[in-house]
């Protein structure tokens, strides 16, 4: 018989820490292994039913295996899945991206958010002929050397915000400010020749943290003043907080946007988008090298197109946003201890023991043990929220009223136990 405990023992013989991506190991006493998912529900190999608020860490805005995406994938499987040539699908997906993301005129497809930010940074350096980068404390931009410096997400969960193995020479090229601190940005840009400022316009990797009113506007103005490029990392927020991402919501337009997650409909993807004269610096038209065997692979393109076609109908945002709002409002009623919930659209996070979270240092003051206890109790009751304070709780178009009501019933039960 296969069960998660036995699989976990096998996995530990084969993988570092038993997993292939660290936060998966944060589920205690051992991770559950998933057999299948449909809509808002996943089933473990033991057949346990869980309402899913992790959603693959963000891509699954329609929920698990939606028919629309599945049908398009099956059609593509019939035709083949890798040609090493251009295909019409990449034009279709790029047209969707450029029509919805205001600052995107041209696109380069890659295979992950990590590749997207790595190439965006190289592009900013190549374009400006400068080498320094400015990032923000607790922002996470993937797992490459340029950005694993004061990083959020699993890098913080495992207490290695700056990873071992990154040459000091690279660390020295990265300046770090606190999110929402424009004075710091101003002084760094004044002092150094910075190629680009990379930011999650809404932080989703130290829990959820919203930009203060003038922050993004200030970043736009300062980067213009100092001839630095502004890079919005919209790997989470792109096509989630609105169909045009955070830039549409706040009407602040970066020079380069990195995308991932939702635009691949649950298959591996990343993209660097921006003004034509910047993107044209990529090979072969320019001298900033990028290439990839799997770039613009037909399956990711097909799943991305099918997902965005659904998003264009509007209903996924209505349902997902309504679900998050209903849950957050009810949690505000039932949580009686000091806490903060940061929320926007279909993403939120709960922080205990604090009453204002505006940057990473604030998050570090939250009672993380309390959050983890909430995660454990909810899991026991059949609700899966991220096993880390430094991740985002997501809702999807499959989180309808029944799912929300069931979730709230379970929340009420465990919150009284938690108190
Ligand atoms: N940027 C952001 C904002 C992310 O949230 C993530 C992943 N959570 C990445 C980049 C890296 O994406 P990937 O895991 O696809 O490499």
From TrEMBL:
It comes from the Archaea. Its cofactor is pyridoxal 5'-phosphate. This is Glutamate-1-semialdehyde 2,1-aminomutase. Belongs to the class-III pyridoxal-phosphate-dependent aminotransferase family. HemL subfamily. The modification N6-(pyridoxal phosphate)lysine is found at residue 261. It catalyses: (S)-4-amino-5-oxopentanoate = 5-aminolevulinate. Its main location: cytoplasm. Its EC number is 5.4.3.8. One of its GO terms (biological process) is protoporphyrinogen IX biosynthetic process. The keyword Transmembrane helix does not apply. It is found in: Cytoplasm. Pathway: Porphyrin-containing compound metabolism; protoporphyrin-IX biosynthesis; 5-aminolevulinate from L-glutamyl-tRNA(Glu): step 2/2. InterPro entries: 4pyrrol_synth_GluAld_NH2Trfase, Aminotrans_3, Aminotrans_3_PPA_site, PyrdxlP-dep_Trfase, PyrdxlP-dep_Trfase_major, PyrdxlP-dep_Trfase_small.
